[in-house]
Amino acid sequence: MKSKFLAWVSAASAVALVSGILVIAANASIGSSSSMLETDGIDLVSANVDGHDVDYCFDQQIGREPTDAGDFSLYGYDSDDTSDAFGTSVDFDEDDENCVEVSFGAGIEREPNFTAAAVAEDAVETRGDVSNPAGTVDLGGSTAAGGEGITTNPNLVDFEARESADEIIYDLDEEIDCEEIDTTGDDDSNFGYYTSDPGPVQFQGTSIQECDDDTGEVTVGFGAGNVDDVESVFIVDTTNDTNLNTAAAGAICEEDPIGDFGCSELESINGDVEDAPDLTGVERTDDNEWTYSFDSDVDPDAGDIDEALFHLYEEDGFEYTPDTDECNEDEGDTVVCNFDINGDSRASVAGNSEDALDGEFPHAGVEECAVLDETSGDCNPVGADSPSGFEDSGFTDGPDLQRATFDATGETVTFFLDEPHNDDVDPDAGDFYVIDADMRTAQGTDVDDVEVDDNSISVEFDQDDIESAVGAGMDDEAAEDYLGNLSVEAAVGGGPSGTPASPSGSTATTTTTATTATTTTTRSPVTRRIPTTLTGHYGGKAFKGSVGSSRNQCVRGRLVTVKKRGKTIGTDTSSSSGTWKVRKPRAKGRYKAHVARKVFTAANGDRIICLEDDSPVIRVRKRRR
After folding, report:
1. CATH number assigned to the domain with residue range 13-143+395-416+424-493, chosen from the 4 options 2.60.40.1220, 3.30.70.100, 3.30.230.10, 3.40.190.10
2. 3-state secondary structure of 307
3. Which of 203, 345, 557, 603 maximizes the CB count within 10 A of its CB?
4. Residue 93, strand partner residues
5. Residue 420's pLDDT band (boundaries 50, 70, 90)?
């Protein structure tokens, strides 16, 4: 029996049967994967931070209060980290009969630093004595769970300029260690902003007015009359001289780092600074090549491009900087930089960086004066962006399982990861398995193929085991990426028997030729909570996106609201395919979309709750020609 079977749950999945092969298609996102595993047991469907507790919710009503809080655990983004946290107490959730509240004690006070919540097998039971399989879901409320431009370290997500008070509030996405910020020294100068009146002017902070550990807010003063016409804000990083984001004076650091370097990178909310080449985007354009785009032409003179001021970051905040003469102007308003990813001591492993997924690098930035405007000669402002092509990854920095396809006739199951497995390392077929509705597992017999291009590993199984499968999974360290990061144990739903057998107590019909008798038992309706995934972007004078879920009725007819700093910009109801659109000409700034919860009663009497969700931050910039 497996000690830690992980059921990775996502709301965005679609199932199609093509040529006898069941295909599960989905959009992957950090902290989640492709398809919901449904067994005859009481399956874990969500976990959310609630203060310093975590609410674990299942797809059926919990009949008995759990007795062992240690069956509930959290773990972080770094696949090599062993500092998992285990529950210290567990109680019924008074507001939801499908959930329990788990506390992790005074020693673990920063759950948002974790990325996933796990439950051991047989941790909970229904009133009918049906227990749960072990499972893991993404941790809702985790700021380490990532997204576009987001790393596991504190990231700048918003700001508030208070002109009357001559101060700016910098809003980080997680709790921070204010003791690392010297309120009486020079740390205030690490915070700044730009104005366009007159011209491009940078202002640096003159005092730290307030720092709030719990909210991640730092209030910085700028002197009398100096907060006016704020175009963009930034936090510079002074701690990366050795490419190790370690704590130092002035760093914006987590209170309790979990499996990462713990301190912020170069952070910026970009604007439109007049006469200055603002960073507008970063894109991976070749194996080790990233192209930085600006909103005006840059001076092509190699002496006016400073490679040391261009940066690229992994999801855990590890920084890369190009070598000398490795950045060059291209097509006027772009600069192409080459990064020696594998040459860095952190990535000196077998394989080529060309096989490392773009998703390893969700954050990039430029310091001031990395380039000069070709016409005005002015420096670029500090800028940061999420590289185009970034694909949100899974729970960890290792190759996380996203989906699987099942070919019973060909006796193979293909496991798709969020990044390539290093094809110089031979995987072990015994590390891969399929699972049936009764939670029985069968191991693979041979590895058929490893494909770097589509991040897949194909494994052979007995045909009977594939035909009875409702899901597939892999053990710890079954896969390894080109940066040496190892996978964690994981499983996804699907398979020829992917629709589970009737749950315990459900209606069942049995017929025999001797008596032609039919027996029927009825069961009480249950409440099922179905995760939702909301995406959003801006284009064509409108905000657009889609609602994803494993259940069609959770896709259509959903109320989506677009907001900017809490103010509603517009609403729409999702179509039958989940798409939505809110018109907003001349948008500029940072927005977020929210899909409200939906509740309905299924044909079998079950109460279905389609869970709410927020999109990643949608950044809209004005581009000058």
Report:
1. 2.60.40.1220
2. helix
3. 203
4. none
5. confident
Cα-based distances in Å from 93 to 61, 100, 101:
11, 5, 6
Query: What number of other Cβ atoms are within 10 A of residue 540's Cβ?
Result: 9
Closest residue by Cα to residue 171 from 235, 260, 236, 259: 235
Whether the Cβ atoms of residue 434 and residue 461 lie closer than 8 Å to each other: yes
Task: Indicate the length of the chain as a whole number.
Answer: 625
Please say whether the beta carbons of 180 and 247 come within 8 A.
Answer: yes
* Nearest to 157, CA basis, from 78, 215, 92: 215
Beginning with the edge strand found earlier in the chain, give each strand of the sheet holding 167-172 in spatial order.
156-162, 167-172, 217-221, 207-212
Q: Which of 33, 57, 212, 200 is nearest to 119 (CA)?
A: 57
CB-based contacts of 288, cutoff 8 Å, min separation 6? 338, 339, 340, 341, 353, 354
Flag whether pLDDT at 431 surpasses 80.
yes
- DSSP 8-state class, residue 617: P
- Amino acid in the structure at residue 430: G
Mind giving me the DSSP string for 138-170? EEET-GGG-BTTB-SS--EEEEEEEGGGTEEEE
Strands (E) in 446-566, as ranges, are: 446-451, 456-460, 469-474, 490-493, 527-530, 533-539, 542-548, 559-564
Q: Going by DSSP bridges, is the β-strand pair 44-50/135-140 parallel, antiparallel, or unpaired? A: parallel
Q: How many CB atoms lie within 10 A of CB 332?
A: 11
Q: Topology of domain 529-620, per CATH?
A: Immunoglobulin-like (2.60.40)
Asked if 229 and 195 count as a contact pair (C-beta separation under 8 A), the reply is yes
Which class does domain 156-385 fall in?
A: mainly beta
Encode pLDDT of 534-546 as tens digits. Answer: 988 887 788 988 8
Token pair 């006796």 in the structure block, residue = 411
Region(s) of the chain under CATH 2.60.40.1220: 13-143+395-416+424-493, 156-385
Question: What is each CA distance from 499 to 36, 40, 310, 436, 438, in whole angstroms?
Answer: 11, 10, 50, 10, 12
C-alpha pair distances (Å), 577 with each of 34, 319, 553, 571, 601: 17, 40, 10, 17, 20
User: How confident is the model over 403-414, as pLDDT tens digits?
Assistant: 899 999 999 999
